[in-house]
UniProtKB/TrEMBL annotation:
Pfam families: COMMD9_HN (PF20923). This is COMM domain-containing protein 9-like. Residues 2-76 form the COMMD9 N-terminal domain.
Amino acid sequence: MVQLCQQAFLYRKRGAQHLPEALVKDVAQTLGVSPSETRQCISTLGHLLKTAVFEGSADPQDIFALFPGGFHKNLRDLLTKIIIDNMEKWQSDSITGQGRLKFCTTQCSLHPSSVYLLSKLHVRAMCVRNNMPGVHGESGICCNFHF
């Protein structure tokens, strides 16, 4: 299940029709479902993981809120544990996978809350990468990092 989550996160930006055939075939065989259902599963899981990383909370209750009502409890609990265990890595990967973080100075098309989130992820990744203990404020970001 962890490997499936890793793959779903890796391919989260691709549409279901653009997943590697080898991945679709392996997952379909493992789960015993059709390739179409596999694409939908990976795509939906990728969306869930992307949303969880965007929200950035490691509180299980916050992650539970991302699941629809009536979702299988044991599967929800397992996915929540995987998300919490991989949150920092996926946040870091989200930043490094896009190259350096660049802030817009003129005619920025990003919503201000998106810029805040990107800066929060960037600072958190820098603190983790540089092993900076720092002071953590209410937002959970490293407050001793100077811009």
